[in-house]
Amino acid sequence: MGAPMLPYHRILSPPPHCRTNTPVSATPNPRPLSRNPPMAATGAAAPAPAAVQPPRQFKLDPQSELRVEVLPDATLRVRLVSGTAEIFGTELPPEGWLTIPPRSKIAIFTWHGATVELDGVSESEYTSDETPMVIYVNTHAILDARRARARAAQGGDLEASQGPRVIVVGPTDSGKSTLCKMLLSWAAKLGWKPTYVDLDIGQGSITIPGCISATPIEKPIDIVDGIPLEMPLAYFYGHPNPSINPDVYKALMRELAQTLETQFSGNAESRAAGMVINTMGWVEGLGYELLLNAIDIFKANVVLVLGQEKLWKMLKDAVQSKPNIDVVKLHKSEGVVLRNSKYRQKTRSFRIKEYFYGIANDLAPHSNVVNFSDVSVFRIGSGHQAPRSALPIGAEPVADPTRLVAVNISTDMVHTVLAVSYAKEPDEIISSNVAGFIHVTDVDIQRKKLTYIAPCPGDLPSRLLIASSLTWYEQA
């Protein structure tokens, strides 16, 4: 079973006093640390400077929204002038300006009408009255009623006291993570503390890509800062695609689910609040199989299918023998922005950069040097096959997909991300959550020194590190 949910943000999400705005400290033979050049949404070279746009106001009719795409290399300010409006379930504060980070895609929705002002250059901005928000908020109301029934059943039947476990599924670019944010923020606004589970290792909305993670949501999600990280729980898969080692992906899902079950068994309110689970956009073949695994492993009782009738029908047929699972088809928003593979890869790089430098690029990580002998690096999976001589007659050698393999530190690790495990012994790594991540900036083979950056100064909380295929290059 995974380690209990701990406040391990010392590395994963350091408090303000751990981060500084000073440059990275000097180290022997450091790799140059500089900002990635901005990239356009298509993955092409950085665009030419856009023409200056003066501040402008939009008067929104009831149940309409203003859809805005922020440039990849500039921020945009948003202000609510009158009325009420929200961004993905979180209300805009009256009068005050909000600075929206680069590359953001937002929709400012109003139930009763509002006037909104924008200041800065955007990639696109337009209004629309064709939104699925009424359907989404009705879904929220049904989930809220289930939470209330679960709370009323506390102390009685265990199944009756379980709130909704909602899993949101759908193809790529169908609005899954956006719907999750809305359902979580609306629930938190009513005083619930649902658990957010992110199984999308390709993008990562709780922490960096390559992780299966969860965190309680105690208040509406901040429009600028995103998912809170006071009490996160992350298991490191280490790759952006589950096809590299699906057995490890499933094993980590089981570890996370088991840890959450332990949490819920001792916290009736969290159990009644339930969970909202975000998934990958891979819904065919192995991706579909992993969706079915996730539904089973996390004991989901509500499946929300976005944007694909075929997937809805397949899932409905697959779970028809389980009467306690509702499979519901929802329309996706027409405002969902399509993203190609190059843009997704660039987004992964930005997510890693944000972990070390902050969303607004206003933080500085700390550089440190360790001896090779001070750390041990392991890779999960890709174990060697057993020799035929060690197998029964007629048996074929098969690699153990979850085998732990020691990795020799080499220059191949430069630019890669390593996870710092909470495991006390190597054989506990696959069942343990991680404290956070470091980025390798230099490997000196002759001196046997490894240079890395981390969000906080000081020694690492563990000498056990997990290798990955995640890379991040800071270009001059």
TrEMBL record:
Family under the similarity heading: Belongs to the Clp1 family. Clp1 subfamily.
Biased composition (Low complexity): 37-55
Source organism of the structure: Triticum aestivum
Domain of life: Eukaryota
Keywords for the protein's UniProt record, in alphabetical order: ATP-binding, mRNA processing, Nucleotide-binding, Nucleus
InterPro entries: Clp1 (IPR028606), Clp1/Grc3 (IPR045116), Clp1_C (IPR010655), Clp1_C_sf (IPR038238), Clp1_N (IPR032324), Clp1_N_sf (IPR038239), CLP1_P (IPR032319), P-loop_NTPase (IPR027417)
GO annotation, biological process: mRNA 3'-end processing; tRNA splicing, via endonucleolytic cleavage and ligation
Subcellular localization, as worded in the UniProt entry: Nucleus
Gene Ontology cellular component list: mRNA cleavage factor complex; nucleus
Clp1 C-terminal domain boundaries: 363-474
Record-given protein name: Protein CLP1 homolog
Residue ranges, compositional bias (Polar residues): 19-28
Domain Clp1 P-loop: 170-358
Function: Required for endonucleolytic cleavage during polyadenylation-dependent pre-mRNA 3'-end formation.
Residue span(s) of domain Clp1 N-terminal: 59-150
A GO molecular-function annotation: polynucleotide 5'-hydroxyl-kinase activity
